[in-house]
Structures are given as C-alpha cells and as structure tokens.
Write a structure and sequence with these properties.
9 helices; 80% helix; transmembrane; mainly alpha; elongated; 217 residues; MetI-like fold
C-alpha cells in the first residue's frame, strides 16, 4: 500500500527542507562576503588587489570544479571531524555548505558587477569609505539581482540534497534510493520526484516574487 509511505515521505521532505535551509543560511553568511571580496578586489575596483583577487578566484574555481558526489566522498574525514558522523542530514550539510559557498560567491560577484560604476564614483566624490560604498551602494543596488541569484543556489541545493541520499544523507534522495530503487517500488520514486518538482517550483515562485519587490527599477 502506498499510504504506508506517507509518514516516510513527510519525514523525508522535512529532512530535505532542513538540510537546504540550514546549509543555505550558513553558506550565505560566508558566500555573500566572499562575493563582495571577489568584486571589490578586482581591477579598477574600490579595494583593488590583483594578487589577492587572483588567488581567491583560483580557490573558488577549484572548489566549484569538483563534482558534488566526489566532494561528498572526498571530505568524509572532515565531515566526521565536524559533526561526528558521515551519515545523516547533519553530515550531508557539510559538503552542501562547502559546495554552495563558492557558488554563492560567484553569483553575488555577478550581481555586483551590474551596479553602474557612476554610482560608486558619486559616493567616492562625497567622501564615502569602501565599507560605506559596499553597504550603502553596492548591496542595496544589487539586492534584487542577488535575491534572484540566491534563488538559483537554493534550487541547486535541493538537487544536491537529493544526491546526498546516495551516501545515506537522509531526505528525499535517501528515501528514493532505499525504498524506491532497492525495494523495487517505482511509485515511491515517482512520489519523491513529484515532491522535488513542487518544492523547486515553490522556491522559484517565492524567489521571483521577492526579487520583483526588491527591484527599484
């Protein structure tokens, strides 16, 4: 009976939402400042530092180039060190955060590049410090774009959290593998896919709505 899977589906959905939300919050705390650094230390920017920018950019690109499934396995020792286990939702959040930080950094950098440089020059002419320019010009002017970019990251996290089920990460991916694939119950696989599709659609809808409200143009 499919009805016996409803409690498991509900629990798995809760685990997925938990993983995505917590991972996104932690990754954003690091990733947004990272994106600011990537932009402001670039050539011709307010904190220009070509050497530092190149080094930081290289590190970001290296981490982004590692496939998520390989990253999960590669950092198992680090995961055990941080959360005490390599299995479960808490363990899955470690690679999710590490994979998301450089992704968020690049997305925020892209959004900040859209801010007209004339606004920065105007702020500089009024004696604004680099921190004031970042806080009162760059971030406010790009908040709609950043919101849209972060929505993309959240959707990516939903997919990666499902992938984490391949190594016992919990959530909908784990349920699909253990109960759908290994026990030959295709209806469970279909149910998890439908739930993931609905979740992604909701995230996109909320993200688009927020971005429109924040857009001053």
């Amino acid at each position: 009976m499919f009805t016996d899977m409803i409690p498991l589906l509900t629990k798995a959905l809760g685990e997925t939402v938990y993983m995505v939300v917590v991972s996104m919050v932690i990754a954003s705390i690091v990733g947004i400042p990272l994106g600011v650094l990537l932009h402001t230390t670039g050539k011709g920017q307010i904190l220009e530092s070509p050497g530092f920018n190149k080094c930081l950019g290289t590190i970001v690109n290296v981490i982004r180039s590692i496939p998520f499934i390989i990253l999960m396995v590669a950092i198992i020792p680090l995961t055990r060190m941080i959360v005490g286990t390599a299995i479960g939702t808490s363990a899955a959040m470690v690679p999710l955060v590490i994979a998301s930080i450089p992704f968020i950094g690049r997305q925020v950098e892209t959004s900040l590049k859209e801010v007209p440089y004339g606004l920065i020059e105007a702020a500089q002419s009024m004696g604004a410090t680099p921190f004031q320019i970042i806080w009162k010009v760059l971030l406010p002017e790009s908040r709609a774009s950043i919101t849209a970019q972060l929505t993309t990251v959240i959707i990516s996290l939903v997919g990666e959290s499902a992938m984490a089920g391949a190594i016992g990460g919990g959530g909908l991916g784990d349920l699909a593998i253990r109960y759908g694939y290994q026990r030959f119950r295709p209806e469970v696989m279909v149910a998890t896919v439908v739930i993931l599709i609905i979740l992604v659609q909701l995230v996109q809808l909320v993200g688009n709505t927020l971005a429109k409200k924040l857009d001053k143009k």
